[in-house]
Fold:
Amino acid sequence: MRFTKHKRHRKIVRFYTACFGFREPFKVLCDGTFVHHLVSNHLSPDTSVSNALGASVQLFTSKCVIEELKSLGSSHAQSFHAARKDFKLARCEHEEKESAFNCMIEIIGENNPEHFFVATQDMDLRKKCRKIPGVPVLFGLRNAVFVEQLPSFQREYVKAAEERRLHMTDSEQKLLQKRVKSILNAEELKDSSNAEEEIDEEDLRGQVIASREPRKTDAKDKVQFKRKKAKGPNPLSCKKKTTSSSAPNAGKADKTSSDAKRSRPRKRKRSRTDKSSSRTDGASA
Ligand SMILES: [Zn+2]
Structure:
């Protein structure tokens, strides 16, 4: 039971992170009924909510909620103190005391830009939140906190938003057509001014098509040029440089394989000079 509950909660949280951009630590806006439920069940607000969401959380309430708890008197005194002490204040614009219900709805707004989870025991508020896009709802049941099942409204809203993103609007389509027309006209004008006399209309059409194709090849050329750059012309030239630079330095000290090629003519030269020297030596002696 417990495992399936966590799995279900994780799935819902993932939906809101993926589709509405919720991010940890999750902000949870709590009303007086929820705070009172936690307090009367001896639940630690922070741990019980973060356990339910399986993530770190920041708990919020509002000035109007605290005022309402205060007005409920001694029966809600403990909840009032907990709300004032342990919860952050979400900003609301109410100068005078507003009902907690209206205050919560106004903080959430039309599409919950602050990405609040709403935590409440109030059935009317829960129903209302189901109809606002991107508002997940938490509620307490006995000694645990639950995430309300994903309403079909939220799923449909996300689907519709995705559809809107995939398809062009009428105005966008008109704009695109206009743009394409102007580009084609400009290209045709260019071609006619470049090669006026010799080409008849059929050739001109061919040129228009051809002039569109080079665009693609231009792009390819650019990519190829980049690739050449990435591979780099250096390795070969560098190797030559290192061998040529190292050869004269190391030529005297090292007898490498490159010396083996040169050894033949050198030997010949030496042998000639040796013979000649020996001859001259012999002649002189
Ligand atoms: Zn308020």
Q: What stands out?
A: The first strand starts at residue 26 and ends at 30. Residues 201-231 form the longest helix (31 residues). Residues 62-64, 92, 94, 98, 103 surround zinc ion (CB under 6 Å). The beta strands are 26-30, 57-62, 88-90, 116-119, 137-141, 144-147.
